[in-house]
Amino acid sequence: MHDLNLTLAIGHCLYFWWEVRKLEKPKYVVTRTLKTRQTPFFGTTAEIRSYAPFLTAEVTLEGCDMNMAMGSGFRQVAGFIFGKNKAVDREGAEKVSMTSPVAMEVVHNEKIGMTAPVMSQQDGGGVYKVAFTMPSKYTKDTLPRPDNPNVKIIEVPSRTMAVLTWNGGVPREETTASKTQELRALLAAAGVKSTGSVHVWAFLVSFRLPIQRINEILLEVESK
Fold first, then answer.
1. Does a structural domain hold residue 182?
2. pLDDT tens, 90-104?
3. Which spans in 22-140 are helix H?
4. What pTM does this model have?
5. What letter would DSSP give residue 120?
6. Best CA proximity match to 33, nearest among 163, 159, 158
């Protein structure tokens, strides 16, 4: 019986892993590799990608730390895609398909933006934007209208991003600051200039094991 339960549990995890892997993601082309992973599951990779335009549903949160912002932002945007909206072509609501990743833009956080060693205390006065990417079948005109006035539909233009990828738990402020410094150091060594805010993307958010989670730090860079 124990072996059967273990087999079912493993099968359940693999099923959800595959289903989440199939979720639609922003489309991009890799234009340059900055760092390759030394082992299949540990370490980091870094590359420069050219992203196609996409839509997001986004909320802005102020005066909180990163963990609080991610939780509140996730709930608000998830509410929108799960039916707290008005369809544009018929009466009632429309469920929007889930995509990946859950995205956060760190508009202001002194700890994440710093270049000195990472400190342990939390900054409770940050400004964050939390967003879900919308399925590519929608345009801004055909996407349902959010009931929540905090949820905004944003057209993200094509852009070139430097991306650092690693496996680990839900990104916290300390990890985000450390990974951002690592990416900036790689860019400096490659002679590439970054601009704008820090972006944090979390994939496979339904999994609890850190090794099953994929996280990314993104910085916009000058396109060549």
1. yes
2. 889 999 988 888 888
3. 66-81, 110-113
4. 0.81
5. S
6. 163
